[in-house]
Specification:
5-stranded antiparallel beta sheet; 7 strands; elongated; two-stranded antiparallel ribbon; OB fold (Dihydrolipoamide Acetyltransferase, E2P); 166 residues; 2 domains; 34% strand; alpha+beta
């Protein structure tokens, strides 16, 4: 079985072959497996070629060489977990709301990395942020979630500002 996703999002393809191997020699099994892998590779190549145009249109000039995409830190939330209350920043990126989990210090570091060090000491559940930034994302090992690997400043935003409406 092989699974592939052209851009780390849900849009993916899984190709699985199965065949009986009883009463076959090791050489025959190896030969059949090689043919199946080659066929999988051709199917996947066609899938990726067909999706590359759509992905280019979707990401456009907003994706950067470092793999980051435009994002917005929305607010700080919390939820009860296995080991007690966990804080997170809700981040809007790739038309999804992602959760960046961490303790107060880690969330403050993420806000500082986005270029808003003046808010790093104000970490509290319920705080509205609305901060533009860029993020590098990566699918979780089980493929169920899109994790934020890194937070970067938005180059179009200069300096710190108070995100609360006036």
């Amino acid at each position: 079985k092989r699974s592939v996703s052209p851009d780390g999002r849900i849009d993916s393809l899984s190709v699985e072959f199965s065949c009986a191997v009883d009463e076959q020699s090791a050489g025959e099994i190896t030969s059949r497996a090689g043919k199946m892998l080659a066929l999988q590779a051709r199917i996947i190549e066609r899938f990726l070629d067909g999706n590359s145009a759509a992905n280019d249109e979707r990401s456009g000039a907003e994706d950067s060489a470092d793999g980051s995409v435009p994002a917005k830190m929305l607010n700080i939330g919390g939820m009860d977990g296995k080991w007690g209350r966990r804080l997170f920043i809700n981040v809007q990126a790739n038309d999804q709301t992602l959760k960046l989990f961490g303790n107060g210090k880690q969330l403050a570091e993420a806000i500082t990395a986005a270029g808003f060090s003046n808010l790093a000491e104000k970490i509290a559940e319920g705080l509205q942020l609305n901060l533009p930034c860029r993020v590098v994302t990566k699918p979780s090992t089980d493929g169920r979630f899109l994790n934020i690997e890194r937070v970067l400043p938005n180059p179009q935003v200069r300096g710190n500002h108070d995100p609360r409406p006036r």
